Amino acid sequence: MSVKVLAVLASGSGSNLEAIAQAIVNGELKAKIAVVIYNEPDAFARQRAEKYGIPAILVNHRDYKSRKALDLAIINILEKYNVDLVIMAGWMRIVTQVLIDAFPERILNIHPSLLPSFKGIHAIEQAFNYGVKVTGCTVHLLSLEVDSGKILKQAAVPVLPEDTLEDLQKRIQVQEHIIYPEAIAEYSH
Ligand code: GRF
Predict the structure, then answer these.
(1) Ligand 1: distance of its center to the CA of 16 in Å?
(2) Nearest CA residue ID for atom 7, ligand 1
């Protein structure tokens, strides 16, 4: 298998970025993160990228007139770095067909629920408030319709009676950090 060149797109903390970078360091994932793209100037993901010596490029959506213009700027970077797979890890922008067409079936996303339940934002809160006893996380291919692409991998997470929302969030993130690197490795074969 050739080493896949990844780009990670992150808007916030970047803990999934770090889990993927660490899996590469550990030799569990044969890949290279060529670039991190982030859209929030103070995203902690930038510092995590620096820690692993990965170039981090700010593409601030506020500087672009449309979603399409933002995606074109992103494609420009992805092509410059010869990216094979685009890894969305907490990327909080809705993408356009332009980006999907540029990387068909090569954009992965992680969502903190067992899709197709609880799509969209605040998925953990939605599940928590609904009272489900099992939730989880899903790695899937990106499609134009939010959180609806082909499912690649899932992990189930129990909701315990005494859980707070924060407890549940933490338990789901532990699983995200396990299944995202695994899903990338499996999909790269
Ligand atoms: C994760 O919970 C992921 O499921 C969702 O956004 C969050 C990103 O967390 N899409 P982080 O920035 O990787 O810490």
Answers:
(1) 6
(2) 90
Give the domain range for residue 26. 4-186
C-alpha–C-alpha distance, residues 63 and 69, integer Å? 9
Q: How far is the CA of 58 from the centre of ligand 1 (A)?
A: 18
What's at 95, amino acid-wise? V
Provide the domain count of the chain: 1
Cα(14)–Cα(147) distance, integer angstroms: 19
Pocket of ligand 1 (CB under 6 A): 10, 12-16, 89-90, 110-112, 137, 173, 176
* pLDDT tens track for 129-159: 999 999 999 999 999 999 999 999 999 999 9
Please give the helix or strand (H or E) that residue 110 lies within, else none.
strand 107-111
CATH number of the domain residue 87 falls in: 3.40.50.170
Distances (CA, A) of 68 to 10, 73, 129, 155: 18, 9, 35, 33
